[in-house]
């Protein structure tokens, strides 16, 4: 059984390039639970708040419910749900899952193979993260679900990132953050700067300049979290949901609202409009603050 292929091939709701990481987040949560508690069942009522938090933090900005993946993941041969009376899942309604004392767990064949090969858990975790989220979020997601992948040898997903992407983006933006202008060097090498994908690599975003932007480490993280975005006229958008009251938050985040983004050198294309539109729709936490 190729479990890596199974977890990366789970059936998901799709419409164009919209994100639907509900099932991957539940699987990562279940893997973290397995690492800590074995195949002890996960009560929906006990996990609902945590799963909802994961969806709000790492899912798209559209409203959703953890009841959806808790029920629908059963169709992929990786997850099973039983109620207090021993019957199967009562459906994807929150009330039904609560009232029936529904519990979920990884399927016995998957549990068996996870116990036989300790490396499998890490392989599945890495595959799910690579296929669904930007690298800047991996550590945070693992911390939220209680999943420790560092201590186990890992394999990567089949699709490989272009190793030259970072260098091309850095050259295009002349080693400066497009949002704040930060530039830093140590022993002749740029530090604190990243090449960020605008449309996430995990969701079809290509490794090319028109999908890349140079950001400092802080603004890259905030960009991938949806705190910062890019407007249609290539200005910085700041989510109205972001709260920062200190002087540093004002100077480093709030004051960016409406600031024109520093584009690449003339020889390189700026970020493509369709990539900006994807990030605005799938990542940015709207509405945007009104520029001062």
From TrEMBL:
<dbReference type="GO" id="GO:0003677">
    <property type="term" value="F:DNA binding"/>
</dbReference>
<feature type="domain" description="ScoMcrA-like DNA sulfur-binding">
    <location>
        <begin position="3"/>
        <end position="148"/>
    </location>
</feature>
<dbReference type="InterPro" id="IPR011396">
    <property type="entry name" value="PT_DNA_restrict"/>
</dbReference>
<keyword id="KW-0255">Endonuclease</keyword>
<dbReference type="InterPro" id="IPR058813">
    <property type="entry name" value="DNA-SBD_ScoMcrA"/>
</dbReference>
<keyword id="KW-0378">Hydrolase</keyword>
<protein>
    <submittedName>
        <fullName>Phosphorothioated DNA-binding restriction endonuclease</fullName>
    </submittedName>
</protein>
<dbReference type="GO" id="GO:0004519">
    <property type="term" value="F:endonuclease activity"/>
</dbReference>
<keyword id="KW-0540">Nuclease</keyword>
<dbReference type="InterPro" id="IPR003615">
    <property type="entry name" value="HNH_nuc"/>
</dbReference>
<keyword id="KW-0238">DNA-binding</keyword>
<feature type="domain" description="HNH nuclease">
    <location>
        <begin position="177"/>
        <end position="230"/>
    </location>
</feature>
<dbReference type="Pfam" id="PF26340">
    <property type="entry name" value="DNA-SBD_ScoMcrA"/>
</dbReference>
<dbReference type="Pfam" id="PF13391">
    <property type="entry name" value="HNH_2"/>
</dbReference>
């Amino acid at each position: 059984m190729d479990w890596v292929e199974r977890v990366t091939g789970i059936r998901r709701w799709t419409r164009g390039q919209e994100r639907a990481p509900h099932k991957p987040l539940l699987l990562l949560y279940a893997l973290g639970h397995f690492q800590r508690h074995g195949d002890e069942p996960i009560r929906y009522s006990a996990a609902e708040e945590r799963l909802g938090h994961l969806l709000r933090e790492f899912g798209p900005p559209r409203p959703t419910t953890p009841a959806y993946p808790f029920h629908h993941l059963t169709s992929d041969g990786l997850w099973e749900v039983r109620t207090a009376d021993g019957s199967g899942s009562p459906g994807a309604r929150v009330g039904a899952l609560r009232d029936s004392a529904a519990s979920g767990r990884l399927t016995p064949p998957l549990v068996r193979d996870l116990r036989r090969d300790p490396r499998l858990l890490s392989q599945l975790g890495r595959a799910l993260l690579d296929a669904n989220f930007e690298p800047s979020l991996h550590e945070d997601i693992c911390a939220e679900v209680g999943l420790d992948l560092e201590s186990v040898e890992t394999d990567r997903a089949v699709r490989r990132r272009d190793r030259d992407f970072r260098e091309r983006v850095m050259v295009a933006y002349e080693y400066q953050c497009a949002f704040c202008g930060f530039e830093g060097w140590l022993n002749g090498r740029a530090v604190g700067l990243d090449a960020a994908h605008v449309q996430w690599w995990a969701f079809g975003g290509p490794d090319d300049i028109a999908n890349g932007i140079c950001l400092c480490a802080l603004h890259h993280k905030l960009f991938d979290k949806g705190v910062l975005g890019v407007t249609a006229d290539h200005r910085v958008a700041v989510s109205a949901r972001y709260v920062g009251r200190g002087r540093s938050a004002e100077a480093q985040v709030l004051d960016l609202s409406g600031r024109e983004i520093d584009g690449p050198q003339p020889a390189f294309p700026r970020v493509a409009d369709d990539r900006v539109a994807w990030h605005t729709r799938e990542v940015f936490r709207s509405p945007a603050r009104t520029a001062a």
